[in-house]
């Protein structure tokens, strides 16, 4: 939902020469969201291995 909130905030953002740079902002927002999802998935894998007592590397 953070992506939706970010996109909605663009309507209130100041515009550069009358046009907001939507593509750059969308790319930044999606990159951040994908990074957070990847970090969360990695953390889940580490946690699962730690709880299973498995001493291997990922």
What is this structure's SSE topology?
Elements: H1 2-9, H2 22-52
Helix pairs in contact: 1-2
Please tell me about this protein's structure.
By secondary structure, the protein is an all-alpha fold. The protein has a domain at about 20-50. It has 2 helices and no strands. The chain has helices at about 1-10, 20-50. The longest helix has about 30 residues, at about 20-50. The mean pLDDT is about 80.
Number of strands: 0
Straight-line distance between termini: 30 Å
Estimate the helix proportion, in percent.
55-70%
- What letter string, H or E per element, gives the SSE order? HH
Rg calculated over all Cα atoms: 18 Å
Shape: rod-shaped
Beta-strand content: under 5%
Derived structural class: mainly alpha
Low-confidence stretches: none
Tally of helical runs: 2
Q: How would a crystallographer describe the biggest sheet?
A: none
Q: Mean pLDDT across all residues, rounded?
A: 78
Descriptors:
mainly alpha; 2 helices
Describe what is shown at a glance.
The chain is an all-alpha fold and 58 residues long.
């Amino acid at each position: 939902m953070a992506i939706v909130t970010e996109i909605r905030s663009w309507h209130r953002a100041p515009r550069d020469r009358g046009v907001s740079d939507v593509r750059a902002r969308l790319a930044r927002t999606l990159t951040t969201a994908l990074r957070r999802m990847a970090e969360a998935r990695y953390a889940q894998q580490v946690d699962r291995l730690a709880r299973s007592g498995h001493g291997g590397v990922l």
